[in-house]
Specification:
By secondary structure, the chain is mainly α. The protein has one domain. It contains 1 helix and no strands. The longest helix is centred in the middle third of the chain and has 52 residues. 0% of the residues are buried.
């Protein structure tokens, strides 16, 4: 019986690790998207400044 119990505990901890990894990946993707948006905004601002001075 203890073998079954340790097996279930192992499965549970594996599933928990997978969920944590998925959450980390999602957070990384969100951060990358935010960085890309910021870069695009900066580029647009630079273009507007160039047009203003031109």
């Amino acid at each position: 019986m203890s073998g079954v119990l340790s097996f279930l505990v192992g499965l549970f901890s594996l599933k928990e690790e997978e969920e944590e990894e998925e959450e980390e990946e999602e957070e990384e993707e969100e951060e990358e998207e935010e960085e890309e948006e910021e870069e695009e905004e900066e580029e647009e601002e630079e273009e507007e400044e160039e047009e203003t001075y031109a």
